[in-house]
Amino acid sequence: MTGTADDLDRLDLEISTCRACPRLVAWREQVAREKRAAYAGETYWGRPVPGFGPADAPILVVGLAPAAHGANRTGRIFTGDRSGDWLFASMHRVGLANQPTSISADDGLELRATRVASAVRCAPPANKPTPQERDTCAPWLVRETSLLLPGLRVVVALGLFGWDAAFRTLAAVGVEVPRPRPRFGHGVEVALGPITVLGCYHPSQQNTFTGKLTEPMIDSVFARAAELAGLSGP
User: How many CB atoms lie within 10 A of CB 32?
Assistant: First the structure.
């Protein structure tokens, strides 16, 4: 089905009130109460984090989960943490975001033709959701993806977890997925009819600090995503 902005708004509201996974609920709320010293004066979101971006986006970016002191604090995916610094800076350089920074939910960031979401919507302890938590949360991404059809053209999967979630989700919305599933790799490109899945190393500090992921590397993926979506340059 094709969704409207109102459809996505209703879905976002449902997501933000979910309490399905006791361990995740307890952790996200504990983090929001105890806070990090640097953010002691802030009110944490402390809830599941919905997707962000236009309802007619032909590009969907799939990450792992909100960061405990990033999106779990700000209420917007990839906002207020180092991974988001890399992600949105790259999107800005290739013309998919109106600004290179994302520090709060009201900072004016707008995405062009791109929606960003995560496979798991609550911040997990040690950034590691369990398989059961992954599967319990999966229907949210399925519903979100279904609302982006039939205009969806590109799914950018961040890391192996995002890659796995992307293929599971596309299969669930009726896209024919090859078996065995293609192996994840940075820059790997898999065409599934009108939709192309692109692999990208996750912009985590582990990858960016070590040089496993560089700015030219992430830029090449998002530039390719824009090209496949039929967008002109910045």
Answer: 19
Tell me the two tokens of residue 155: 């799914």
Confidence at residue 234, expressed as pLDDT on a 0 to 100 scale? 58
Query: CA-to-CA distance for 144 and 119, rounded, in angstroms?
Result: 11
Q: 35, exposed or middle or buried, with CB in 10 Å at 0-12, 13-18, 19+?
A: middle
pLDDT over threshold 80, residue 55 = yes
Query: Which DSSP string corresponds to the chain?
Result: ----HHHHHHHHHHHHT----HHHHHHHHHHHHH--GGGTTSPP--S----BS-TT-SEEEEES---TTTHHHHSSTT-SSHHHHHHHHHHHHTTSBSSS---STTS---BSSEEEEESS-SPPGGG---HHHHHHHHHHHHHHHHHHTTT--EEEEEHHHHHHHHHHHHHHTT----SSPPPP-TT-EEEETTEEEEEE----HHHHTTTSS-HHHHHHHHHHHHHHTT----
What is the C-alpha to C-alpha distance for residues 51 and 141, in angstroms, rounded to an integer? 9
Angstrom distances, CA of residue 175 to CA of 92, 98, 166: 30, 31, 11
- For domain 5-228, the CATH class is alpha beta
Round to whole Å and give the CA distance between 218 and 131.
28
Sequence length of the chain is 234
Single pTM value for the model: 0.96
Domain coordinates in residue numbering, the chain: 5-228
Q: What is the pLDDT of residue 59?
A: 98
Q: How many CB atoms lie within 10 A of CB 175?
A: 18
